[in-house]
Amino acid sequence: NPKKTYKYEQNSHFYNKVECHDAPICEHVFCNTCITEWLTSNQTCPIDRTNLTIDALKPAPRILRNFLSRLTLSCSNQPHGCPASLTLERFDAHLLECNFNPKRPVTCQSGCGMTILFEEHGNHNCIQSLKIELAIVQKENKEKNEEQEEKMSRMQSELDLLKAEIDALKKVIKEKQPASSDLQLLSTVGQSQAVNQGTVLADSIWLTKFKTVQNVQELFNPLVFERSDRFELEYDLLKLRKIAEMQLSGLGCPLEMAKILIENSNETRWPPGLRSEEARRENWDRLKDYRCRVDGSFSVLGVHGKLKAAINLIMASDNAHMDQDLFVINPGFLVLSLDFRAFYCPNQ
């Protein structure tokens, strides 16, 4: 009877009507939930016991579904005070907004502002709920902190491993540096043409004639370091420049390379960590890491007699391991020393 108000039990019972499909004489209609549960343990129709499987079920006729949709139902929250009677098609929408639904979420108006179920509102304790919420947040934060600490520990271990590998590589480079640096393409600085290994060896073999010095701190010692202007009255700087060029050429250094090395002997062309006395004092302990090539096999004649001279080469190929502020620009630079007093040749 469409005019009668029926009690609601489960909405899916009405929308998912099914009927037996296998037997033409069996057109019994059941709710989807009930018949599905029955057929999980029985393979017959509950009414006439004809054979029936879940696969044989099909939707109920449209006329039956339309009839059911016009039935008037009482709200399922009627026991909680809801007086609404409505058709099946409006039933779900009503349940979502029914003020008598004990499962609907509401916001606590007592101060905590938490979202709780309406049925729990009477027993809700703001302080206790906030304590529980705080405990949950603290637990989550603790887990996140532990996870972050674990990640940081892994990253630190990886960093330590990388540092160890870098130190090992630096050690290998230092051990192999004499052999490898001699094969650098020193005579073709600023040129892009390719050369074969034989040319490289021929152009760089002259470096092997220099004595290798690992610690060059004394070369830059402020107590013995002299600027070029202090030599102007005693030495002919142009002559010293020419002597250095000839000495390098005599050792096999290409002329173009010799000129570049002498040009770079100007203090302003040195690495930032060497360009001033203050910078050299500040980086004093780090200067011992420089690798220098020295040739002291000649003398020069000064105003007061013959002086022992030495050419000190700080080559970029020998010092690739230095930090940025002490990094030598290719190909390197020359420091000339007379009687153990070092000075740079000025640009003329």
Could you give the count of β-strands?
A: 13
Q: N- to C-terminal separation? A: 118 Å
Question: Which residues form runs of ≥5 with pLDDT under 50?
Answer: 1-24, 178-202, 223-234
The fraction of residues assigned to DSSP E strands is 15-25%
What shape does the CA trace take?
rod-shaped
Number of domain modules: 3
Task: Give a description of the structure.
- This protein is an alpha+beta fold.
- The protein folds into three domains: 5-101, 2-Layer Sandwich (Herpes Virus-1), CATH 3.30.40; 104-181, no CATH class; 187-343, no CATH class.
- Helix content is 35%, strand content 17%.
- The chain has nine helices and 13 strands.
- A hairpin with a 2-residue loop joins strand 12 and strand 13 (341-343).
Structure summary:
It contains nine helices and 13 strands. It is α+β, with helices and mostly antiparallel strands. The termini are far apart.
List the main descriptive attributes of the protein structure presented here.
single chain, alpha+beta, Herpes Virus-1, 3 domains, five-stranded antiparallel beta sheet, three-stranded mixed beta sheet, 9 helices, 13 strands, disordered N terminus, EC 2.3.2.27, zinc ion binding, coiled coil
